[in-house]
């Protein structure tokens, strides 16, 4: 591991860093950055933006480190995004055990973030906001440190003896092999974020009245089930992360959180979903059902009137219910890695969607009504069964990215030249893309490039 990191650091030193302000937590003061002031200046992220930033951050971290390093590596990030969607600051801290050169690890992580976020922007940020997240790679518990002036506690021992409990807003009890959540959490009445993921919790009952300001609850990678999870009624919790547990259905306790906007249940085997599952969830904006063994999406999902982000990646869906078109506020729809043969005929009712991921399915045509989805900016139809170019694609006027990779187009689709607006076009993996493609289709490719369309083939 050390040899790999040393080689990577050597490459990093040879490459000039871009202007992205990526700073290790230990260098914040040296860089003249006031972390507390930043936290006050930037708003909390909206659900869709939070998801977008956290997914990007997770991808960068996953690509930067081995899949299961031992000891494990935890990366704590504080990300500040401006009104245009670009990052102003990314402050990170690495927590790990012995066996790593901390300075080398910091440099490697910094380089990964600088290059990973280079040119990347959040879609439709609206106003500047911040995201705080922790991502752990590997299973072994890590050594934790408390930074002076921070508003976080990162281990159980410190939580038990910490004196100024009123100032603590974040409590990290992840990866501690906990079988029960200790009552020490109630020592911090101003707690806003509680991280207890990657433990061995089988049952949990939290009295939210004793945590009157708790906004985020992260319980991923435990052993919680529908019969063992309870929350008391509250109006503060906005994000609930229950990924990779043992839930079969949306737990009834979820409906106790009246202000909940973000619900993540990916990685559970949600085989007991029914129309009743979606009752009292009208306030949820972001729903994650990633890799949840869902073969039929119940019609009752239409009850989630305020849903903006729906993630159905890696399931067993062959169709989408027509009732999904009742989700009029939806902006992000991800149905990739399923077995879907057709999109809903009235998909145009989802007029606010600007991001649609439907790659790795069995689509061979598009519903005519899709031409009325004029807010589409990103459309990914890669790895489907298209043989004939869907003419509907020429109707979009705001499209920025179109992915048609690995379909079955025998020749270059001439209708692509009629597309009015596009920035990136992906055509890799189609039968017509051969070694002589650049020469054979030089006219078509030249015409696309003359419109400043970046073509990947």
Detailed description of the structure:
With 457 residues, the protein is an alpha/beta fold. It has two domains: 2-59 and 66-116, no CATH class; 129-389, Alpha-Beta Horseshoe (Leucine-rich repeat, LRR (right-handed beta-alpha superhelix)), CATH 3.80.10.10. Helix content is 16%, strand content 18%. It is built from seven helices and 21 strands. Strands 6-7-8-10-12-13-14-15-16-17-18-19-20-21 form a 14-stranded parallel beta sheet, with helices on both faces. It has a five-stranded mixed beta sheet with strand order 1-4-3-5-2. The relative contact order is 0.07. Pfam families: LRR_1, LRR_14.
Features:
457 residues, alpha/beta, Leucine-rich repeat, LRR (right-handed beta-alpha superhelix), 2 domains, 14-stranded parallel β-sheet, 5-stranded mixed β-sheet, 7 helices, globular, disordered N terminus, LRR_dom_sf, signal, Leu-rich_rpt_typical-subtyp, Leucine-rich repeat domain-containing protein
Rough outline: globular
Report low-confidence residues grouped into runs of 5 or more.
Answer: 1-18, 141-148
Query: How would you classify the helix and strand content by structural class?
Result: alpha/beta
**Cα-based radius of gyration, to the nearest Å:** 23 Å
Number of domains: 2
Instruction: Please write the string of helix (H) and strand (E) elements.
Output: HEHEHEEHEEHEEEEEEEEEEEEEEHHE
Provide mean pLDDT, rounded.
88
Supply the CATH class of the largest domain. Alpha Beta
Largest sheet at a glance?
14 strands, parallel
- What distance separates the N and C termini? 35 Å
- CATH superfamily grouping of the largest domain: Ribonuclease Inhibitor
Q: Biggest sheet: strands side by side, in what order?
A: 6-7-8-10-12-13-14-15-16-17-18-19-20-21
Strand-residue proportion:
15-25%
Question: What is the number of helices?
Answer: 7
